[in-house]
Design brief:
Structural class of chain A: alpha/beta
Strand content of chain A: 15-25%
Number of domains of chain A: 1
Number of strands of chain B: 24
Oligomer: heterodimer
Helix content of chain B: 55-70%
Shape of chain B: elongated
Structural class of chain B: alpha/beta
CATH superfamily of chain A: Response regulator
Number of helices of chain A: 4
Largest sheet of chain B: 5 strands, antiparallel
Number of domains of chain B: 5
Helix content of chain A: 25-40%
Number of strands of chain A: 7
Largest interface: A-B, 25 and 27 residues
CATH architecture of chain A: 3-Layer(aba) Sandwich
Order of helices and strands of chain A: EHEHEEEEHEH
Mean pLDDT of chain B: 81
Radius of gyration of chain B: 51 Å
Number of helices of chain B: 28
Chain lengths: 130, 883
Amino acid sequence: MDERVVLLVEDEEPNRALLRAVIARAGQDRLRGVVLVEAADLATARTVLATRHVDLVLLDVRLSDGNGLSLIPTADQRGATTPAFVVLSASVLPAERATALESGAVGFLAKPFRPSELVDLVAEVLRIEP
Amino acid sequence: MQPLLYLAEIIFVVLFVATLVEFVRHRDPVSRDVALSFSALGILFVVQIWRDLGGAAPEVASAVGGGLFILQPVFTLHLVSLIRPVSPRLLWGGAAILVGGALPVVVFRIQEPVLTVVVASVFIGLQAAAAGYLLVEARRRHGPGAVRMALAAASTGTFAAALVVSVLGSGPGETGTATAIATLMAVVAGLGYLVAFVPPALVREIWQARTTVEYTRDLIGRSREPVPAIWAAFVEVAVRMQGGAAVMIAGARPGEPAIVGLSGVDDSARSVEVDWPELEALVADGHTRSDVPVDEIGPVGHRLAAIAEARFVSVVPIALPDRPEPAALVLLANHRALFHASDLQLLGALGAQTAIVVERRAVMAEQEELAERLKLTVEALRAASAAKSDFVASMSHEFRTPLSAILGFSELMGGEPRDGDNVTVPVEWVEHIHRGGQHLLALVNDVLDLARIEAGRLELHVEPIDVGSAVTEAINGLRPLADRKSIAIESAVPTTIVPADRGRFRQILYNLVSNAIKYTHEGGLIRVTVLRAAGEVRIAVIDNGVGIDPSDHERVFEEFRQVGDPEERQPGTGLGLAVTKRLAEAHEGRIELESARGQGSSFTLVLPALRDDQAAPFEPVPASAATAAVVAGVASGDVLVIEDDPSAVRLLREYLETAGYSVRVAPTGEAGLAAVAERAPAAVVLDVLLPGIDGWEVLRRLKADKRTQAIPVIFVTVVEEREVGLALGAADYLVKPIQRAALLGCLARYVENGSAAGSAKRVLVVDDEAAALALIRAALEPEGYEVVTAQGGRAALEWARRGQLVDLVVCDLVMPDVDGFEVIAALKRDRRTSAVPIVVCTAHDLTMAQKARLNGQILGIVAKGQDARLGLLDWLRHSAPTI
């Protein structure tokens, strides 16, 4: 099975640890072959995106150095290798959710989320059959 | 020619009669001079008419008429001198020449042409001068008065010209034409005088209407201007009509300026004080008073006239619509005025109109102000509502972040492989859950604090607090955090007392110091200084950390706001400074911030210093009372100290033994438990950090054993975990370094009050309601108190007379027979009961006066109702430890 790369952009260490644990546990079955790369801020995330192939970006909105949504390319900037973006945010008011989806994210997961929800969403976006 | 002559004669006779009537009615110098001016022609023409009708007029009448006629220009000029300055030389010189020249002609019948020419010339010259003066005066004024004055001037001029014509035409070869022309001119002059001095009602009304229309138009144009501008325009018009100066006085209410407008007088007149009675005296009967000499006008007019240097004062009362206070236009002049009455009447009418406009303007201004206030309120409410929404959105975000870790990791745990009932999970997961929970708790506490403060429900129990020990306590609690970053904390705190709520004061200090630690780099320095200045105590927490840009100084106190470099973000609820600021404000203090990027920060808590009057009510702080009792040697009992640090043991032993306790020491937890098993002490003083089992475990085991669970355990430790200690069952929790008084006070409370303490305490409850007595009895008896009751104040006094002993009195204040204040006073008077502590239990909020009455007499106040039971027990346990 080929390797699928998921980039997690999240400034809170507990949340990164949670994602790490969730993906590590699911890596043994549902998310076999998924590799997690972490970035604690926008700058790191940009470097990662510029230097390696990424299939999916899990994106927090309120980041220490700016708005996570600014990482999502506009429709005309997108190419074949552009990753999919899923927003993970604790800002869950309808307006905030709508902004996330309008900026081009394919999914929105409200914090706190259930690990199984996240696994399902990642599998769905990466088209990994159960 | 005859009819024309008759007409002239009739006109002047009418003029004389009318002005004479006017003089008789008013008896003022102006109307006297007017009447005198027309007297000569009036008398002469009456005589003439009489003769023409065939009557025999007395010679003396002709003589008087002739004499007066010679002086006629002098009278006219004298009249002018009343209303404006006139050269006295002209007036009296002219008079002398006329009298001197006319005497030879009249008395000696000398017909000297030269003399006649001289007299006639002077006569005509004086007439012309009077006409000129009047004209000049008329041109300086406006309104009907000016028109009438101009007419009078023209008539005087015409009359002089008529005389010239008649003199020139009376020479040889006289044809009668000159006489006819002169007569015609006299008729014209007479008619002019008539209109000027005795104007027909219609003419008068037309003049007044013109002025009124003009003024009203102007007034309507000004109706949106401020009230002072409207009055200013009115006094301006008054001065234009009358000359001199004008002052408008409206409303002499205390605190309101009485003088609302002035013109032609120095602005300092505005500060002239006018009180209501004075103003009422001024407008007395509501009648216009004209040209009253300064000395007769009364104090207000006199003061104003002094400033304007005026000799005559006129007062026009003006009615203010719907307002009771009197108002008046005061005119100040150096000379009397011609045609005064009708001008003043007109000014009164204009003033009344102005007052109506002013009143409307004032109502309008009030409405505008109200609308403006309403607008501001709506804006403020809208902003507050937006801020609330933002806050709720931020709060939701802040809550979800730790919840995310708690729920996520705990769900993951459920998925881990099972070993029977157990699962094995990574330690890290548990730590994340724990930290998430702690963060949530901190958030909830801060949010609750904020909500409490916002709703005005923050209850502060303000008492004198020693800043030094509070600062030390806060620093010690945070020392581990600072040590982790190798930050040094220095404090220089002189003995300083501030009135503050102990817990909240600590919270403020804790927040400021922990913030300083967060934003100071490794190896940094934090200093805490205390300064007393001008009724304030300034407690500054100064760091040499990252600092805050001045543009962010206000925002750091906002909720959920972290400013500065994102790289240097620090964990926290984001509410600490918001809460701190509000807590400071609730103490009538503030937080000041001095800082610049990269220059460190200085947060200063500024609290009002303890006032002298605050010191007294706090004097009987119960804890210190207990300590005093202990120090006096009342204390006894066996205290077990479980502590491994020899220097700490030395200090504790010193404190306890000098207070009368016998001390046993155990250096480890195990040894301590053994010592308790050997002989149960009255109390245990326990450290947390011990070799072997720690203090938590020692406490757990003591509380788990039925034989030892009643022994009060007091933690004395550097570990800042008060809540944990109390939750595990510790009686109290003191953080090192401890103070002697704190330790002894605390021990006294539990050693005396613990299960080892002997007989039940007796409490006398005084209340007029049986239900209230039953309620308090039900609250106290299960706690081991013996309750005696007195239903009503009289019963309580009866009990006091019998001199039965109790340890505490709980007393209601409002009772029908003898009230609580009297009962308390009686108890305090009686030597046998004066030392018994009293707690007041009342359903009413006490006034300041009532509190002052109780000051120093009682231990405390408990509100009746739901919480009375808890409140009472709280007082009994903590505030009255010796009971």
